[in-house]
């Protein structure tokens, strides 16, 4: 896997690649739904969301291995909807993190998280933050294994999220 990771190129997605990002989001949603996890739904995502993210200052990334797309994530510089009063100008927020299912189990998730963390630190931020559905036990465990500290639970009307950060 180290050899594979050494050849992964992570770069900002271009506007004309918005459909590739959308495909990754929808693929991940279908995979989650098949496992009985409904934090993402394929029909929730649409092309306008991707282009809105790009236009509104979010940094959308694609990861390539050779010519194959292997993952995506988005970095934002504020997240008051989820982080509420804890939203901080010292943080970068990772969202819409997805690994292409053909590359599952090869350690790409960790590689992409580290790439995002490095990009956030290069912007002078001291906190890396992310969230996930509170009832997704495996993903909560994964983020802890990746060195993220649990901050708190956010309960909304019909969902709950776990908030994590890394210094």
Describe this structure in words.
This protein has 167 residues and is α+β, with helices and mostly antiparallel strands. It is 35% helix and 31% strand. It has six helices and seven strands, in the order αβααββαβαβαββ. It has helices at 2-6, 18-34, 47-55, 80-83, 108-122, 137-145; strands spanning 8-12, 59-65, 68-76, 91-99, 127-133, 149-155, 160-166. A seven-stranded mixed beta sheet has the order 1-2-3-4-5-7-6, with helices on both faces. The longest helix is centred in the N-terminal third of the chain and has 17 residues, at 18-34. It is globular and about 40 Å long. The chain starts with a helix and ends with a strand. The model has no long low-confidence stretch (mean pLDDT 92).
């Amino acid at each position: 896997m180290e050899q594979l990771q050494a050849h992964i190129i992570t770069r900002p997605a271009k506007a004309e690649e918005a459909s590739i990002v959308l495909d990754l989001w929808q693929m991940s949603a279908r995979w989650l739904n098949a496992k009985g996890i409904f934090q993402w739904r394929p029909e929730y995502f649409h092309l306008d969301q991707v282009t809105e993210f790009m236009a509104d200052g979010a940094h959308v990334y694609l990861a390539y291995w050779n010519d194959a797309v292997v993952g995506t994530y988005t970095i934002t510089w504020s997240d008051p909807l989820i982080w509420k009063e804890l939203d901080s100008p010292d943080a970068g927020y990772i969202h819409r993190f997805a690994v292409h299912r053909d590359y599952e189990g090869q350690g790409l998730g960790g590689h992409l998280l580290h790439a995002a963390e490095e990009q956030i630190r290069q912007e002078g931020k001291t906190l890396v933050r992310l969230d996930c559905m509170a009832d997704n036990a495996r993903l909560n465990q994964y983020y802890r294994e990746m060195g993220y500290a649990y901050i708190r639970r956010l309960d909304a009307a019909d969902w709950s999220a776990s908030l994590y950060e890394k210094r």
